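User: Is it possible to get a 3D structure for a protein together with its bound compound? The compound here is glutamic acid. I've pasted both below.
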Amino acid sequence: MSATKPYSFFQSVERSFDKAAKLTKWDLGILEQIKACNSVYQMRFPVKMDDGSIEVIEAYRVQHSQHKTPCKGGIRFSDEVNQDEVMALASLMTYKCAIVNVPFGGGKGGIKINPRNYSTYELEKITRRYTSELVKKNFIGPGIDVPAPDYGTGEREMSWIVDTYASLKPGEIDAAGCVTGKPITQGGVRGRKEATGLGVFFGIREVCNMEDVMKKLGLKTGVEGKTVVVQGLGNVGYHSAKFFREGGAKVIALAEYEGAIMNPNGLNEEEVFQHRKKTGSILNFPGATNLAKNTDALELECDILIPAALENVINGENAPRVKAKIIGEAANGPCTPEADEVFAQKGILCVPDMYLNAGGVTVSYFEWLKNLSHVRYGRMEKRFNENMNMKIINQMESLTGKTVGAEEKKSIAHGADEQELVHSGLEETMISATREIMELWHSNPDIPDMRTAAYVSAINKVATSYVELGIFP
Ligand code: GLU
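Assistant: Yes, that's possible. Here is the predicted structure of the complex:
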């Protein structure tokens, strides 16, 4: 696919950036600085495999911007990893963090391996060695650069990273903040795992609640009853599907790399996940129809299409066949600039990755804050709030002479726990970002689409912070 592409992923991010930059007032120097990747670390290191052979591993960490520190962004394990891709993804992180007001610069890492081809022990050795390479070059640390999960990685890899980092930095009291997306027992925060998918849901739900936007698309307001297609059943796709289903939408198709399945009556992501675990494939799921190619799912008739896998899956070639009314970019870079042109012509609303999938990094921010403050969210006030709420209810009961049911009383009075606080912080973030970008888009007739509006918002925020830093007096 990449051989026929006229430009690379990083260049496509640059194109979208340039399209938006023209609509801002910043001078060229500032724009050039924002666009550039500040530091690119390409590394090779040897790892001994289980059979005794030695493999040279290719890996990267890119720090796109230090206008705010630390840099922040995931680490992916994939065959397709290359410098250009990591640079593109690091850039998107800068813009993403700016839009949702998370005070980090953008970063991204990648190891060029297909994790399926390695044993757990081999993966552990690769991850630990990668971490020590980052430590050696000062490319990781709670105040420098903080990795997180991405495609092909999860809690397990993050716990190897924090353990390696902490053992190389004895006595560093904030060591747990060197990486996010950790298991709870290793300093993780409740609510991080589902954060990206939940953020996608909150963002799209907000769009669906906008009457004028829905009217233009010929849709009813609200998520309820809408048909949804999700590409990718990894952490992000799984949780997006889950929250849409729980929100009353119907997930009519799911796609993975081995194929796609469809059921107009709706699919349950957990049942499909279990079926895949048992049989090794999502195909032949009871009650569903198999689709010939996994990409066929992208072209199904539906209200909302959620690409939640990799970049460049909707491009100039297949975009004309997309029939969804709304595209929610849960993955990073799933639609190319050519696809954007087609969407604009066809009146398809594409809600861009740059902020829609920011739920992950938003909750990573909460996790990092938790690590630096060394206290669980809610620990200080949970009981206090509960006692206070109970007093208020009791007062109301005695003043009115009426009583609240025992269950109801418990639910009204309860003090928020960590997961509830994280979810509500995320909900607030996604709702405000959606409104902000939508308003910016609608307030300027020169802005052609929501992606450009998101870029304009990001550029304005990053440029302002450069100017405020005094870098461009
Ligand atoms: N990999 C995720 C992303 O692309 C999360 C990054 C983070 O939490 O730092 O946004």
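The mean pLDDT is 96. Residues 72-74, 148, 150, 180, 332, 357, 360-361, 364 surround glutamic acid (CB under 6 Å).
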